[in-house]
Design a protein that fits this description.
The chain is mainly α. Helices cover 53% and strands 0% of the residues. The longest helix has 20 residues. The mean pLDDT is 83.
């Protein structure tokens, strides 16, 4: 018999998305996280890459590709990563909620 219902499905490989027009917020957060985790032992190099990403986010927001809400979330994460010391750096990398879409910084002014 030539028919078999449990055949293998062809695997599809997706190419990485490099066009900012096609990137959504999850991909941008993932790119930020990848840059940080690849340089977990060299925070200064990661911070350089974060600053470069911020320029890309600004250009995308100016072009209407990235919404203000998404950009503010990315900038809030970048601010935390750029202003922390090296021990806080590792804490932010290990914080799973920090990397989820929809993360918001806690208000420090609450009494």
């Amino acid at each position: 018999m030539g028919w078999w219902p449990f055949g293998r499905k062809a695997k599809t490989k997706r190419a990485p998305v490099s066009d900012p027009m096609l990137k959504d917020n999850r991909i941008l957060i993932s790119d930020l996280r990848d840059a940080c985790e690849l340089n977990f032992d060299n925070p200064e190099e990661a911070r350089r890459q974060i600053r470069r990403m911020q320029v890309e986010w600004s250009d995308a927001a100016r072009g209407g590709i990235l919404s203000d809400v998404n950009r503010s979330g990315l900038d809030a994460r970048a601010f935390r990563l750029l202003t922390c010391d090296d021990t806080e750096w590792m804490a932010w990398l290990d914080n799973l909620d920090f990397w989820k879409p929809g993360w918001k910084p806690e208000d420090d002014d609450e009494d």
